[in-house]
Amino acid sequence: MSEELDTAVLGEKIVKVLKTIFDPEIPVDIYELGLIYDVFVNEDAEVKILMTLTTPNCPVAETLPLEVEEKVKSLDMVKDAEVEITFDPPWSQDLMSEEAKLELGML
Question: Which ranges carry the MIP18 family-like domain (predicted)?
Answer without folding.
Answer: 12-85
